[in-house]
Amino acid sequence: MGVHQAAVVGHDIGGGIAQLMAADEPQRVARLILIDSVVDNNWPVADIARLKEPAWDQIMVNIDLRKCLRKGLEAGIVIEGRVTDELVDEWTRPFQDLGGRRAYLRAARALNNRDLVSRSKHIEEIETPTLILWGANDKFLEPQWAEALKHKLRDTAVEIIDPGGHFLPLDRPDAVTEAITRFLTTR
């Protein structure tokens, strides 16, 4: 693509990947934006970690995945009316058949925090200007993790968006866009 430097945005696990990118390729990451990001060993969260239990192989065959994903979206989005049937359909579509459900289970079981934890010292050396955005009402990765992340990184600004849940880009796209635009034009 010919892109030599970019602002990198990561949400949740993508935030962990973005941290590793900034540690590995600092010359390529001009700005770092972390939204309700994983930090060290605060993930996978319990509801995802329990999917490693063998019983889930059979549960996934008959589970009402649409209902489960709706429940997760509703827990992670606080603005009323944002969780629509269309959004749930979009999130459910890849997992409609048994192959998709098994792929979901494999992906969930593969999640681990080893790279993030083992490379913690490298992450603490990141000097890239960083914006940390967090939903004040995040039930999955509570807002205190924003401060923990701020103390790990060297050049950070933290913005807590209230109200706002874990899925902040879906919940408060206006506030996320404004915060990112402000950060990119002033830092």
Characteristics:
187 residues; Rossmann fold; alpha/beta; 4-stranded parallel beta sheet; single chain
Helix content: 40-55%
Q: How many domains comprise the coordinates?
A: 2
Count up the helices.
11
Query: What Rg do the Cα atoms give?
Result: 17 Å
Overall geometric form: globular
Strand content: 5-15%
Largest sheet: 4 strands, parallel
Task: Write up what this structure looks like.
The protein is of the alpha/beta class and 187 residues long. The chain has helices at residues 13-24, 46-49, 56-62, 65-76, 85-92, 98-110, 114-118, 120-124, 144-152, 168-171, 173-186; strands at 6-11, 29-35, 130-135, 156-161. It has two domains: 6-43 and 115-186, Alpha/Beta hydrolase fold, catalytic domain (Rossmann fold), CATH 3.40.50; 46-110, no CATH class. Helices cover 50% and strands 13% of the residues. Helix 3 (56-62) packs antiparallel against helix 6 (98-110). The protein is globular and about 50 Å long.
In short:
The protein has 187 residues and is an alpha/beta fold.
